[in-house]
Amino acid sequence: MQNKLAIFDLDDTIVQGDSSVLWTQYLWDKKIITDPRFVEADKEMMVQYNAGSLDMVTYLKFSMQALSGMKIEQVDLWLDNFVDTIILPRIYPEAVKTIATYRSQEIPIIVISATVTFIVKKIAERLNADIVMGIDIKQKDGCYSTETEGIPTFKEGKVKRLMQWISHQPITDAYIYFYTDSANDLPMCHFADETFIVNGDERLTQAAKENNWPQYAWSL
């Protein structure tokens, strides 16, 4: 039996902007964090991310210090407000329609992102996604730590994490639809059976032309 899966990147694919950067800005605006180095680190992260040179583990080790000592329950409350006020207005209507089309065909929806899982999960819940994969952060004493665990869902890590998940499912032959904006996702683009480019960056747009991947310009 062939199982179909609809897989979506999150940032700049479903949502206009990067949810990790928007989250840091939210914490800054609310004066929850007051050290400008965290905002600056996110700007530098985006430069490196777009260049394909980001060391994700090192970046997270620094950025997660922003929530040091804050209880998970409190972070969860901030996240709810963050998603309601900042993220929901930024979700592309075309993304909602596309997800609904797959759902009407009873095809599972998977959101897989290089953002930390606790952010991705909150957003994906509002989209009624079936499966959420992000970068998992270890918890310690009721707080998030600065340490990651498991396979980071970044670059080829997205493929590895997906294959790990599939290996524990009653799936023998998965047919994968994949949507993304970033050349960092090229490993998944080539792994998928059908790849769709949404607001692709320069490198991904070139790859799309070479591989005849459909390209879409989604907007608010």
Structural class based on helices, strands and sheet pairing: alpha/beta
State the end-to-end CA separation: 38 Å
- Report the portion of residues in β strands: 15-25%
Number of helices: 9
Helix and strand run: EHHHHHEHEEHEHEHE
User: How many beta-strand runs?
Assistant: 7
Oligomeric state of shown chains: single chain
CATH class annotation: Alpha Beta
Low-confidence stretches: none
**Into which percent range does the helicity of residues fall?**
40-55%
CATH homologous superfamily - what is it?
HAD superfamily/HAD-like
Average of the residue pLDDT scores: 94
The number of domains is 1
Protein name: Phosphoserine phosphatase
Enzyme class: hydrolase
Pfam families: HAD (PF12710)
GO molecular function: hydrolase activity; metal ion binding
Quick recap of the structure?
With 220 residues, the chain is α/β, with parallel strands linked by helices. The protein has helices at residues 19-29, 36-51, 56-63, 72-87, 93-104, 117-126, 156-166, 186-191, 202-211; strands at 2-8, 109-116, 131-140, 143-149, 173-180, 194-198, 215-216.
